[in-house]
């Protein structure tokens, strides 16, 4: 596949060492605004697509085909602005990862992000995440790298090991994924500035940091992340949270209700607006 202008732009930006700031995009208007405001990339947030597109919490309920079609539309709207796209766990085993990479690449994304959670995954800032083994993820990562036909397509490897296994294990996994050929490494949900600094010092590869409003990770400034040498900063919840709060405020006023009744202060609160509690209860029922 011939590379796209957007992929070439993202590769050039990463090579330059300049921080890529990528706001979350999840629908047509958010993508248009990111392009019109001059951002150097957009981040297709799986949580945002689940909530805004399908009325679902980010717990692995959205399918690969649903995400691919959203990626295709948003990549078209962004044009030459690179789209960094969340692909969760690759939606299955290594063979599923191959198809996911093929479909995302054909949809026009500039980068695809894959993670080492077990399926069904959970938002990285929710509790009770489960992982697959390092070796199993390395097989999926190799499948992703082999599946791309455009070498400019950036493959991002994310580890969620910080919460269940601790930061040492997360750094060890990240370095293993870097050694296997991942272009960018993403250690999800570090829980303090000291942990962000350790990741920057100890992971030997370009790094991505996820800045979620109300999440577990401190909201470091772009200037500080540049100093630490991060390559990409994603802000998946910024536009999504503002849009949701605008809807809550307007609809509560129309209904004669206090909008604070539904005001989310954490990712869990936000996902409860789209049924997290009910879906979690169903999951516990069938697990028993």
Automatic annotation (TrEMBL):
<dbReference type="InterPro" id="IPR039556">
    <property type="entry name" value="ICL/PEPM"/>
</dbReference>
<dbReference type="InterPro" id="IPR015813">
    <property type="entry name" value="Pyrv/PenolPyrv_kinase-like_dom"/>
</dbReference>
<keyword id="KW-0456">Lyase</keyword>
<dbReference type="Pfam" id="PF13714">
    <property type="entry name" value="PEP_mutase"/>
</dbReference>
<dbReference type="InterPro" id="IPR040442">
    <property type="entry name" value="Pyrv_kinase-like_dom_sf"/>
</dbReference>
<dbReference type="InterPro" id="IPR018523">
    <property type="entry name" value="Isocitrate_lyase_ph_CS"/>
</dbReference>
<protein>
    <submittedName>
        <fullName>Isocitrate lyase/PEP mutase family protein</fullName>
    </submittedName>
</protein>
<dbReference type="GO" id="GO:0016833">
    <property type="term" value="F:oxo-acid-lyase activity"/>
</dbReference>
């Amino acid at each position: 596949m011939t590379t796209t202008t957007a992929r070439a732009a993202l590769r050039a930006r990463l090579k330059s060492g300049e921080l890529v700031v990528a706001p979350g995009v999840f629908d047509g208007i958010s993508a248009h605004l990111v392009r019109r405001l001059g951002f150097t990339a957009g981040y297709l947030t799986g949580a945002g697509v689940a909530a805004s597109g399908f009325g679902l919490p980010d717990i692995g309920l959205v399918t690969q085909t649903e995400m691919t079609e959203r990626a295709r539309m948003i990549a078209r709207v962004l044009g030459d602005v690179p789209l960094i796209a969340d692909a969760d766990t690759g939606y299955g085993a290594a063979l599923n990862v191959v198809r996911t990479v093929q479909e995302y690449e054909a949809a026009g994304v500039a980068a695809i992000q894959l993670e080492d959670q077990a399926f069904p995954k959970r938002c990285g800032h929710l509790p009770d995440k489960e992982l697959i083994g390092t070796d199993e993820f390395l097989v999926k990562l190799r499948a992703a790298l082999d599946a791309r036909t455009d070498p400019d397509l950036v493959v991002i490897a994310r580890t969620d090991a910080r919460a269940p296994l601790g930061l040492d294990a997360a750094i060890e996994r990240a370095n293993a994924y870097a050694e296997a050929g991942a272009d960018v490494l993403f250690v999800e949900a570090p829980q303090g500035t000291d942990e962000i600094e350790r990741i920057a010092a100890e992971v030997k590869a370009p790094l991505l940091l996820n800045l979620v409003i109300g999440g577990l990770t401190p909201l470091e400034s772009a200037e500080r992340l540049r100093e630490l040498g991060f390559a990409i900063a994603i802000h998946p919840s910024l536009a999504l949270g503002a849009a949701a709060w605008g809807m809550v405020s307007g609809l509560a006023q129309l209904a004669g209700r206090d909008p604070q009744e539904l005001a989310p202060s954490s990712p869990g609160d936000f996902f409860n607006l789209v049924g997290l509690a009910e879906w979690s209860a169903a999951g516990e029922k069938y697990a028993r």
